[in-house]
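User: quick one, sequence for these tokens?
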């Protein structure tokens, strides 16, 4: 079990190093994401957005702009750091209120 855990962390670290400088890949989904969520950033795979928002520009206040901030957070924190921060903040604060990653993404993507 200990060896498996070490392999897992080496694998995650390697994926993180390989994909850290990777440009985001935007994938428009042909179905709705369950719940109120319209998009999700899932490093290192990409940004997933419901297809009905495909015509929305990447300007201020857009879903894509918000998700690109999350991709920048991933590049800044690395793969493991991104997931650790996002999950720990989610468990502590929920998805929206006082979750520093969501607060930062909303603030940086809003129109000024």
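Assistant:
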């Amino acid at each position: 079990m200990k060896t498996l855990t070490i392999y897992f962390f080496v694998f995650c670290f390697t994926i993180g190093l390989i994909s850290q400088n990777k440009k985001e890949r935007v994938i428009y989904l042909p179905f709705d994401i369950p719940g109120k969520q319209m998009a999700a950033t899932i490093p290192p795979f990409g940004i997933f957005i419901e297809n009905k928002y495909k015509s929305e520009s990447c300007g201020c206040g857009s879903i894509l702009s918000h998700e690109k901030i999350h991709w920048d957070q991933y590049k800044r924190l690395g793969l493991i750091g991104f997931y650790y921060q996002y999950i720990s903040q989610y468990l502590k604060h929920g998805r929206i209120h006082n979750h520093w990653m969501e607060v930062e993404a909303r603030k940086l993507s809003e129109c000024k």
